[in-house]
Amino acid sequence: MTEAAESLDQQLWDFVYAYDAAYDAAARAVGLSAAQACLLDALTGGSRAMGELATELLCDASNVTQLAARLEARGLVARDPDPVDRRVKRLSITPAGRQVHQTVRAGFDFPADRLGRLSDPERRQLSQLMSKLLA
Amino acid sequence: MTEAAESLDQQLWDFVYAYDAAYDAAARAVGLSAAQACLLDALTGGSRAMGELATELLCDASNVTQLAARLEARGLVARDPDPVDRRVKRLSITPAGRQVHQTVRAGFDFPADRLGRLSDPERRQLSQLMSKLLA
DNA sequence: CACAGGTGCTTGAGTGCATCAAGTAGTCTT
DNA sequence: AAGACTACTTGATGCACTCAAGCACCTGTG
User: Fold this and answer.
1) Which domains are delineated in chain B?
2) What distance in Å separates residue A67's CA from the closest CA in chain B?
3) For chain A, percent of residues with pLDDT exceeding 70
4) Closest to B8 (Cβ–Cβ): which among A8, A115, A132?
5) Which of A107, A94, A19, A59 lies closest to B17 in space, CA to CA?
6) Which end is more exposed in chain A, N or C (fewer Cβ atoms within 10 Å of the end residue's Cβ)?
């Protein structure tokens, strides 16, 4: 055989590796870490409470505090007290943040670039396989 | 529709997320970080020079030094000077390290568990799609 | 041989992510 | 109004990672 077919396990490993690397690079290109980019992404749907974000990102609340502080320092995110429950701080993305987020999304070429190699039926196939794997 | 089909982009994101989490959990179960487990894995084929490892893991040499130091402290890895070029330190996995590595591999249930849901033809399909994506 | 330059690794300093424990406000229950 | 609970912050710690500087060793040139 011309190209010894790698095992599926190895292929998945490589795939995940490339995917992670691409995301990290896209974030880093605008001076963000992957974690910061994730947080920003979680805010695109509207403002969220810190605790909500911690649950969603599966991490400690104090972790969100730190990430938010760094993003706030760059003016990408705003932290406002909830008018109803003053314990709660609501995080929202600023216009500058939305701009940066768009740049990350655009620079995250993995889906665009690599998925472009697949035909429509192939993409449907992959989608079906994924839904089985994710259950 | 019963289950709004997620977009393929989202599915891939979720897949990668689950994969990473599973690996991390498997490593953590034996008290290793994902990075340490990766380093250990890179040694299963035989001893490697520190620099080689840095290139392979796409990180700084001093990073490898630190990771190796932690693994060495646990007796999972041995660091011996190369007899030919005494600048070079060759890292090799110890029997204890091999043991731990096996445990990680066994605990990394992602492929075993999730891939088990696919039939043989489906696995072949996925493998072909992956090879297109990885080019 | 000697010595200048290159190589391989380590050290030290600094940053960020992540987690835990403890603290502070604010809310809710009774 | 007191006590329990909640939401977030602070402080401390550990690891991953990077860069700059340093040390030991090798190598090519004269």
Assistant:
1) 8-110 (1.10.10.10)
2) 19
3) 96
4) A115
5) A19
6) N
Which residues, 6+ apart, have CB-to-CB distance to B74 below 8 Å? B31, B96
pLDDT in tens, B42-72: 999 999 999 999 999 999 999 999 999 999 9
What's the confidence (pLDDT) of residue A109?
Answer: 82
Percentage of chain A lying above the pLDDT 90 cut: 91
Q: What is the DSSP letter of B6?
A: P
Amino acid identity of residue A20, one-letter, is: D
Structural Rg of chain A based on CA atoms: 18
Q: What is the 3-state secondary structure (H, E, C) of B37-89?
A: HHHHHHCCCCCEEHHHHHHHHCCCHHHHHHHHHHHHHCCCEEEEECCCCCCCE
Q: Give me the residues of B, 36-65, that contact A with CB < 8 A.
A: 58
